Amino acid sequence: MKILLAIDGSAHSRLAVKHVIAQWSRAADLKLQLLHVDPPLTARVASALGQAEVARYHEENSHEALRYARSLLHRAGLVFTEQSLVGDPAELIARTATRGRFDLLVMGSHGRGVFRNLLLGSVVSKVLQSCKTPLLIVR
After folding, report:
1. pTM to 2 decimals?
2. Are 131 and 96 in contact (CB under 8 A)?
3. What CA–CA distance (Å, rounded) separates 59 from 86?
4. Using one digit for the tens of pLDDT, what is the confidence trace for 29-76?
5. Backbone angles phi, psi at 66, to 5 degrees
6. At 135, phi and psi to the nearest 5?
7. Using an 8 Å Cβ cutoff, are 94 and 124 in contact?
8. What element of type H or E holds 136?
9. Which of 32, 42, 73, 96 is the most exposed place for a label (fewest CB within 10 A)?
10. Among residues of the chain, what percentage have pLDDT more than 90?
11. Which residues fall within 8 angstroms of residue 19, CB to CB, at 6 or more apart?
12. Per CATH, which fold does 2-138 belong to?
């Protein structure tokens, strides 16, 4: 089974990591990829910081967001790959799941957002609308 696990470093994504370990740690054919998508900085902030600082900022954010997942997955003895991107999280998560031909996309849901997103987080809602890959939402 080929699983894409979208991580943002939140408590909900930590629950998603634990769920993947509980459900698939014994699967012989598991191919697991962690994905962190960092939203871009505004053009004004990026311009003030400079290209090298912006790159370092996004690298540090991804490292921090993935740290807990890496630790748990290593302790569970699972092999995985990682990918870090910068852009619109919902768009890039859906695109990665589709282009990578994953069997399953796993995400944690904050359940935050405006009134229309009372049940699910806005990123999860957008991914649901634009991705045909089966999605497991962990809350």
Report:
1. 0.90
2. no
3. 10
4. 999 999 999 999 999 999 999 999 999 999 999 999 999 999 999 999
5. -90, -10
6. -120, 125
7. no
8. strand 135-138
9. 42
10. 84
11. 106, 136, 138
12. Rossmann fold (3.40.50)
